[in-house]
Amino acid sequence: MYQTDWKLFRSVRTATLGLADTLSEQQAAYVPAPGKWSIGEVLDHLLLAEKLYRDRFSKLIELKKAGQKAELQSDFSEIDTSVLFIPKPMLPFLETPFKLMNLFVPTALRETMTRYRVLPAQAPSIAIPRKGRAVAELREELRNSIEQTEKLFRSNRELDYRELRLTHPLMGNNNVLQLIRIMSMHEQRHQEQIRTVQRSLSYPKSS
Known about the structure:
By secondary structure, the protein is mainly alpha-helical. The protein has one domain (3-198): Four Helix Bundle (Hemerythrin (Met), subunit A). 53% of the residues lie in helices and 7% in strands. The protein has 7 helices and 5 strands; from the N terminus they run H-H-H-E-E-H-H-E-H-E-E-H. It is globular.
């Protein structure tokens, strides 16, 4: 029952690979402005974000197969995603307000905020990209990573993924199918970031 949502993520990753396949090392390393990510860093962030979700999916599947409640609670000490330039050290003090806010935020609105940069956001520390990675290595890992995630689902296709849930103060309570859609929208947003970098006047030409 995960196939429809997975098909979306697979198509999004195909588009990401299309953007990455013609990149030179110079283009991947180009930084459009101080404090901004290069395309190589955006790609590495996508890898780290997918691994973050894959690790949570694995834990949820283990809980379900062990006959336990398949729900994980994450907090800002584990995933310190921030919005509106809120300093990360302040996040633990805002967990309760964010949790209350999410009681009234529809899933569709959260997904829209993920897809489009409605609010300025800061990546969690666990997904801060590594600088200077070789573009060929990034391309290969993007292909391998989605295969690893898909293998996890194929090996457990009998599960009802609506019953497996992850809760976070900022992202609310989502089942695995919703999280796959969030992954897709997150990656689409960063595809737009890549295209914006490529439109920069000083972006290196293809060699």
